[in-house]
Design a protein that fits this description.
alpha/beta, 5-stranded mixed β-sheet, 22 strands, 35% helix, 20% strand
């Protein structure tokens, strides 16, 4: 059974699933090269990419599922979108609510047979319309008005049933409207001069605002909380120090609120496993707090937990919710198509290059010498993190590499940290590991004090790092590179940042990689088995 999911709004994309296994999934931004690619039209670039890479067609699809955002422009386009899909497929697509789609992505990508699921983001769907009808058809009550919007939700999942646990809605209008956790973070981004989707920047800035004084707390109301724009506008802003203090205050409140939601969800359903999704699940500091302070024994966060993962949740809903499929398959983070040697050779043909017998060993030598290397291998990763196939790499021991990468390669703010990759079996040597692994860079953990001198380029100002653990079976070539570098230097860690520059998506094609390489101060490009230099 073959199911297709797609979404409208920001971070559009498509995902294709066959019998519970991801065949292909990609965000439209990787193809149209527009960061957070947004729109209220069918994302044909992403859909065609998925269909062509799997050799499928619209007519081969058993179910097509979609979701749209809450804003009015999307409502005006729904009928047209459904008719367009009907012309291509023969039937109208199935709608699934925004938060439920996030929840499906989180649970069915996880290894759990049962789990609680928490969804927290900027905004889901408006109650009035398709969401209200969907809940009524499933016999699920909605304790909200028609103009309210999904803010945070909790569910209990097994392979056989789904049970809503709680839901909090935000009002659509009002000068002091109740905000979601995601909107709270967005509003703070705007308050300090960032964009609304710059939550990662705010998280990186927050540790600089820790000055020892008490943190102002947002008022709690039972298991929920009340957030007002008045709180955001009262935060300090303007100078770097004031912006950092605002980021720190909001970050600490977010940690408190998410932990409160996790505890409330556990009270309603004392399951040992928790899954999280929605854009807030990218907040890797809060994720660590849930691991260390909640009653849950296991926590799983799907890598595309922001809206880029909505297509995955839609496709999962098509298989498990509509077709009632039962097969489960392990999640893979590498969901793009593989580019053949002919395409790689065409991309590098006019540049200085040579084919290597062991690309991993040669790159390890270059990294040891202090070079910055663009690493393009295999299928691209799904979601906003580069996990060893579309990465820029360098030696984590060299403190000055952080400034060099920020200023001359990535062209981004100097305060932003970089992440490390480490073979799973070596992780506890360098980091405090409250979790058994961190394969998707979704947990910020403490760097061991004795290792900080050897990890200067990836240790943030607060002594932490957002780590990726790597297993041989998940990515053999990247694992080989990490171990080759470790054998040369005694440090089994590499600095790994996404292969892109600021305000651009991560590279997808060999041509994208070459273009980024030529327009930055990256020293070498390792693309397939080919090494390229300037």
């Amino acid at each position: 059974m073959l199911t297709l999911g797609f979404n409208l709004g920001h971070d559009q994309g498509a995902a294709l699933i066959r019998d519970g296994r991801i065949v292909c999934a990609i965000s439209q931004e990787r193809l149209d090269r527009i960061k957070h690619s947004s729109g209220v039209n069918v994302p044909h670039l992403a859909i065609d990419y998925c269909l062509k890479s799997s050799g499928a067609s619209w007519k081969a699809l058993d179910v097509v599922v979609y979701n749209y955002p809450h804003h009015t422009k999307a409502y005006d386009r729904i009928d047209a979108v459904e008719l367009e899909v009907q012309e291509l497929w023969g039937q109208k697509p199935v709608f699934v609510p925004h938060h439920l789609s996030h929840a499906y992505a989180a649970f069915y990508a996880s290894p759990f047979k049962e789990a609680n699921v928490i969804v927290a983001d900027g905004a889901g769907n408006l109650v009035a319309g398709r969401l209200e009808k969907f809940y009524a058809q499933n016999g699920w009550p909605i304790n909200a008005g028609p103009e309210d919007i999904e803010a945070e939700s909790g569910f209990y999942f097994t392979g056989e049933q789904i049970k809503p646990l709680f839901a909090r809605y935000q009002t659509r209008y009002g000068a002091n409207q109740v905000l979601s956790l995601g909107r709270m973070y967005w509003e703070t981004c705007l308050h300090v001069g960032m964009g609304i989707l710059d939550g990662g920047k705010l998280m990186g800035l927050a540790p600089y605002g820790r000055n020892g004084s008490p943190v102002e707390r947002i008022a709690l109301d039972g298991p929920y909380f009340k957030i007002s724009k008045d709180l955001i506008t009262a935060l300090p802003n303007g100078t770097f120090e004031k912006n950092a203090r605002a980021a720190y205050i909001i970050q600490k409140n977010l940690e408190q609120m998410l932990l409160l939601l996790a505890e409330y969800c556990y009270l309603l359903s004392p399951c040992p496993n928790l899954c999280m999704s929605g854009g807030i699940a990218l907040n890797a500091i809060s994720n660590r707090q849930i691991i260390t302070q909640s009653k849950y024994q296991n926590l799983f966060i799907v890598p595309p937990c922001n809206d880029s993962g909505i297509p995955l949740g839609c496709a999962y809903y098509g298989y498990y919710g509509v077709l009632k499929g039962a097969e489960r398959a392990p999640y893979t983070q590498y969901t793009g198509k593989k580019y053949g040697e002919d395409l790689i050779r065409a991309a590098v043909g006019g540049l200085l290059h040579r084919k290597c017998d062991d690309i991993a060993d040669e790159v390890a030598e270059l990294l040891e010498q202090g070079c910055v290397v663009g690493w393009f291998q295999g299928k691209s990763e799904y979601g906003p993190r580069a996990l060893g196939n579309r990465s820029i790499l360098c030696d984590p021991r060299r403190a000055k590499e952080k400034d060099r990468l920020n200023n001359k390669v990535k062209h981004r703010e100097s305060y932003r940290p970089f992440a490390p990759s480490v073979p799973l079996e070596h992780a506890s040597k360098y980091f405090k590991m409250p979790c058994k692994d961190s394969p998707f860079m979704l947990f910020i953990l403490e760097v061991l004090e004795k290792q900080k001198p050897y990890l200067a380029a990836i240790t943030h100002v607060d002594g932490t790092a957002r780590i990726q653990t790597v297993r041989r079976e998940d990515n053999p070539r990247y694992y080989r590179l990490l171990t080759a570098f470790g054998k040369r230097t005694g440090v089994y860690v590499l600095l790994n940042t996404s292969f892109n520059i600021a305000r651009e998506p991560i590279v997808e094609t060999p041509q994208d990689a070459v273009r980024c390489f030529l327009n930055t101060q990256i020293d070498y490009l390792a693309i397939g088995d080919y090494l390229v230099w300037k």
